[in-house]
Amino acid sequence: MAHRSRYGSGSIRPKGDGRWELRVSAGRDPATSRSRYVSRTVRGSKREAEAALAGLLVGVTQGRDLPTTDATVRDLVEQWLDLRRETLSVTTYEAYLAKARFRLLPAIGDVPVRKLGVRDIDALYRTLSRDVGLAASTVRQIHNILTGSLDQAVRWGWRADNPAKLATLPSIRAAEVRPPSPADVVAAIAMADLELATFLRLAASVGGRRGEVSALRWTNVDLVAGELVIAKALVEKADRTIIEKDTKTHQARRVAIDAGTVAALRAWRAEVERRADIVGVPLRTDGFLFGPTADGSAPWRPFHWTSAWRRLREKAGIDSTVRLHDLRHFAATRLLDAGIPVKTVSGRLGHARPATTLNVYAHFIPASDRLAADTMGEILSGGPPSTGAG
Q: What does pTM read for this prediction?
């Protein structure tokens, strides 16, 4: 029987001719649940072998010496998605799941994690961009999945580095913002039925996202103060169930509403109460502003509003490229054009920081440096610099 000496989670076994086999336990493989080991063969005395074992133990503990694993990219990505299911938003998780199943895993799912290299990933992104024709933003979402998964592989000891971080990504062109004109928005609201008109007026006046306006309840609205609180958003899952979730920034925001919007909400409230009275049900205190039930217990699906907008857009003769989401751009650009501070606009839109608003809408912000321009004009024309506001 082979002689073994154990040192913590490692062992030494003599192999003859001055050789020693070192073996260190490295936990279990998350892919297979089998025990993993790191093995080395060294030459020398037993004391030298013991010193080498001590070094190997430290290397395994610190992640420098890694055990081999048979796990594939498919094993890794599926386990990473399962791990992140509770921390990702529903929409992000389902988007990642679809892209992994239909784009990422069919291409490199069978590649062993330890053998995946930067060139493999670059080739994948190039194929997805050039041959498959995916948008750069979609390829970058796939990159996010692969990067997150490989970061987890490093934590699990499946490999020592993350090659996705060195991969070459396709560049993204910023989408051009094309908000509808005030005339188009006013005309659309005028032609809509009362419920749709109220929804559109809210979306245009506060710049709310479709899911946020869909999720509004009467408890979020203060018609006396002229304010509302945007606290939740509705999301439709792949199985068509509707859930309420936090807003995109996970923060509620209080937004002031104008007198005209307050009047529109009062008119809609009166109609909602009339409908509830007709069918003989009490209107729920926390009922949804918009929905198919008389008591306000259920909301419309978010896509209901997209479909309604498309029909109204055609009826009103509005360009077919104008999306429901563009009412949000309408709110932002009109406020900025009117000189409302970026920080205020950012707060109404629910951006995480004013820099986001600036990045999207910078070219809609009017020039505010007229005095500076006039001063430079005077200097360049040989005259004295202007010293007063003019």
A: 0.71
